[in-house]
UniProtKB/TrEMBL annotation:
This protein's name: Ldh family oxidoreductase
Keywords recorded for this protein, A-Z: Oxidoreductase
GO MF annotation list: oxidoreductase activity
Membership in a protein family: Belongs to the LDH2/MDH2 oxidoreductase family.
Keyword Oxidoreductase: yes
Amino acid sequence: MPAASLNLKAVPLNTAAYRSFTIDEAVGWVKRLCESKGCSQAVADSLARATVAAQARSNEAVGFRHLADYLSGFSSGRIDPRAEPRISSSGSIIFKSDARSGIAQLGIDRCFDSMCHAAYENGMAALSQCNSFTSGELGDYTLRFAKAGLIALAVANGPALVAVPGAKGKTYSTNPLSFAAPSADGIPLMFDQACSAAAFVNIAHAASTGGDIPDGWAVDQHGNGTRNALEALGGALLPFGGHRGANLMLMVEVLAAGLTGANWSLDSPAFHQGTQTPGCGLLILVLAPDFFSPGFERRLTSQLTRLTQMGVHRAGWERQHSMMESQSNGISVSVDLLNELSSL
């Protein structure tokens, strides 16, 4: 359904045409777009909520821009638009989800309440998921658990995009990781970052707009450093920190692919072309702080305040304030992007 059907008001931002949405309007717009691609109501609901949440946190790379990858994936068969994850458990704290070639978000939604209950009762819980499309905004999952009073760590893998030092070709995905912890002031500590120097979607966006990328982000097909985003797409991304970043990528790969039974990045089909699902993996570990140290949230808030006074950046603060502003003032999305998504 085209954006105009919502009769929303276009507003000028940075001289470009933008369209404003309330959060509910944006979720409804994305849901209808997904349903037009044959998505079940459950898939459309889950993906719409996650997409709009990322956009509202100003994480545009995995917001509306990333939605184009899902829409083309539904059309090509890389994502099953009606897949219902197969959920099972092992013991009282281990949950498993086979996404069955569907989106990653629905498996987390299906297990969220059970994981929270298990962690409250036992001190910890874990979710292992395999056979999904890419993870989307990994920080969305950890932040939701942190708002429920739990510490959360999440890792995910995907198709090989990164060439690490000394390797002959691409070896790992960007292999993101995210961590979040609840605090007494109601704003959880949270970070969500790739183990590569930059996320693939940021380079793809630069290529689509004709922009350059910073040094150290990628190499071209010959292994030479490049600032040309198109050359980077034909080459490979680079890890941050050289071998240290590569070590973190390997750790994420072992947890997100090895432990879950998902495809290794080397064996994962591309997420942006072809007809096969990338078969990605994701692992989430949650801890109930009071089982370890009563008063954790108060202690963390005190420590974060002290660090902030020393000039230390509080991870996740800006994104969560962006969400609060979006809940009050809505979000704005470029009309060109909305038209592109509608055309898909």
